[in-house]
Structures are given as C-alpha cells and as structure tokens.
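User: I'll paste a sequence; please echo it back and then give the predicted structure.

Assistant: Echoing your sequence first, then the prediction.
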Amino acid sequence: MPVFHSRFSVRAPIEAVYQFHRDARNLPQVQPPYPKVLSLRCPDLLNAGDVVELELGPFPRQTWKALVEELHPPHGNPPRALMIDSAIEGPFPYFRHRHVYIAEGESTRIEDTIDFDPPFGKAGWLLLPGIHLVLEAMFLYRRIQTRRLLESLNPKPKTQNV
C-alpha cells in the first residue's frame, strides 16, 4: 500500500493547532485553489464519529465523504494530539489520513501520514508518481497556509534593544 508523509513545524501552541484542525471551516482556507472546495457539510467542530462531506472541483468534480475515526486532544509530556480520518466515499478505494501534533517548545510539529490505494484498479498503480506529486503540491500549500493562519494568531515576540 502506498504511503505519503508530510512533516513541518508551525510557531503556535499545540492546543491552537489541534483546535484549528478540529474546526472544519478551516479546511477551505488551507486547501489549494485547485481543486477548490465547492461545498463542505459537517459540524463546525469535529468529534470522533463525525462525517465530513466535501465536493471539490470544478473539473473533475470529486465527492469525498470522510469519517473522523479518532480524535485525541493534547496529552502527555511532551504533549501530543491525534486525528485520524478515513474516506468512506471518494476517488480512492482506500484513503486513511493520520494527523499527529507534537509540542516542541512554543511550536508544534505536524506530521501527516496518508495510506491509500490508487484509483482505477491496477492501472492506477501507474499513476503513483503523479499522485505523489499532487499530494506534495497540496501539502506544500497547506503548510504555507497553516503557518500563515496560525502564526498570525501567535505573533513572534519582538525583542527589545537595550
């Protein structure tokens, strides 16, 4: 089964990062302009057992339904948090996204792991290099947007010249 990994740090406390990802209204803000989020149906604040319904487009139009399987708030030392969602409908026969948040001082490391089976059966395996490129581009955009949005809420302290 193919696996995709992404890892980056954001200058924000783990509680803020965790709550940001639980708030489904933030998904369109971190999703690249293409494919654009055309519709989003789910509770504003996600909990385990919730279903997220997305329509992406404009072309090709894609419908995704994902189940929030697990959701664990920050705990432990250093604090860690977890969110796992799996597609129950979408272009991939299997798609499971694991988000891990780890406190690192005043920052939080975000680790995403996606296990998936490519679409289109056996022919889909030929698309793996392209799928990985699309995921790399998508997560690069998400990284930039997540930092922009969260770090604006947690500005870097200004140093005083003495």
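The beta strands are 3-10, 36-41, 51-57, 62-75, 80-89, 94-104, 107-117. The longest strand covers residues 62-75.
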